[in-house]
Amino acid sequence: MVVSPLLCELEKKTEPMLMRGATFFAVYAAFATCLTANNENFLAQAVACSGWRQTGGCSPHGPREPGGDRGCRNVIPPGASGYCECENGRRAGQSTCDHDEFTCESLCIHGESSWLEGSEWYWNDWRNVEFREDHTFYAPDGNCDNGECSWRAEGNNIFIDWGHAGMHTVQVSNDKKKMSGQRDRDGDKCHAVWKKGGKKEKSVQTKPAEDAGPDDWITDVENEDYDPYFILGVDPESKDEVIKKAFRKLSRKYHPDKIRGSAEKKEEAEKIFSHIRTAYEVVGDKDKRLLFDTGGMELVKESDKKEQGGGAMDPFAAFFGGGGQQQRGNRGQDAQVELAVSLDDMCNGNEISAQITRRVICRGCKNKPQRGKCAACGRCPNEIKMVTRTMGPGFQVQQQQEVPSKHRCKEEPTTLKTVIEKGMTEGSKITFERMSEQRPGQIPGDVIMNLKQKPHSFFTRAGNNLKMDMEITLRDALLGFSKTITHMDGHTVEVKRSKITRPFQVMTIKKEGMPVHEYPSEFGDLLVKFIVKMPGSLTDAQREFIESNF
Known about the structure:
With 550 residues, the protein is an alpha+beta fold. It contains 11 helices and 30 strands. The chain folds into 5 domains: 5-46, no CATH class; 48-110, no CATH class; 207-284, Helix Hairpins, CATH 1.10.287.110; 326-453, HSP40/DNAj peptide-binding domain (Sandwich), CATH 2.60.260.20; 460-533, HSP40/DNAj peptide-binding domain (Sandwich). A hairpin with a 4-residue loop joins strand 3 (81-86) and strand 4 (91-95). Helix 1 packs antiparallel against helix 2 and helix 5 packs antiparallel against helix 6.
């Protein structure tokens, strides 16, 4: 159990009482007195604000106008110029008349950091650390849920209260694209690279400047800050076409074959180009890119080793059934799914949706694939949190507690949309890449849909041909007939006979069958089998006629 620092004098005040056999209530009273005194001091330090000092001339350096001064928590409206006076005479928020509303309390506590509010960063092994606008801090490590962590900035220093992980102090580079620092209690190093967001997003450098030298943006793959996106000058959300274009542009500039001059220049270009090529090999490959995004270069290297060493038997069964099978690298098992499709859709083509249920890993498993395991899903460890317990009026203690993570791997319904092409047949396969069950540190396998034809009420299929039965009367069979049927795409087909039609006789109508897959302008035939409906009885006249003529 960790006692709050606000109770720092407890032992000194209570020990004499205990020695004299003081009652619990006397001890408790001393405890509460100590807490109250220290709490007041704490609040005074936390505010660190004297108030708003107004000036004239729409300049923070204009003549003082004491009549316009305001308290720390008063909103400073647009049109007022001046500055916030903080502890030790420090000034913050020096403003002209043109500004948004703010309070000096916020500026003195949090610092002038509007550019940082709402931004997201790659932080060590996590890909989505957030500096929120309300000055709460979020990281997917279980220490900062429910707004339990906070941040403030002073100059180029940012102070982050990271919950159970402790206080961190980091410094921001001048171009506001990188952070580096350490945890206060043990000096544990940390680093971050800007991802997106922030109120001054345009001023944040997300890729190397046009005139930047290689030393400004080339990092070795062994460096913990290695970022292939930054080397290529692209955003992590960039599409494949953008990444290819960036690589081609850098290749034209740094490929050794494009360099003219001394051997030293060619050798330098070769080194630079090797870094560019390595970066493209990572993010230009959809599988390696996915591995890097979820586990960094360590996971990419691990996958490369497995690829070189061959596949291994995967004991994890697919969520749609089936046992393990040989897998290569860090690729998961494919899932085979049967999809029932109507003959109309196979004839006309259609976009249909199918719903599956698959295992989806939690954010902690994505960003920290090497974390400890649990029995529930294999990868979701409980979170260690600091909780505040009230033991009595004015008596609070902080205590470590292990609690289940709110973010856990789960079975999630997933809708897959697919296009049924004209002429597809039963057994045709449609592949959805990387949509199978997810596992930490592994590329998901594919979902493979096998088409299964539903029975049709009118037609049956035989390859590219269609078959149907047509019932005709004995009169039609003897004298001929003309009938019209409606095809599956809505057009009409005339079935006409002028000769005698024998029972079960088959008539072939050319090019009225199914469209040929991948050749939709070509069609099979329609085969019509005639079923002669015999009369239930004969009149005397009919019987006499038949007997006389047949």
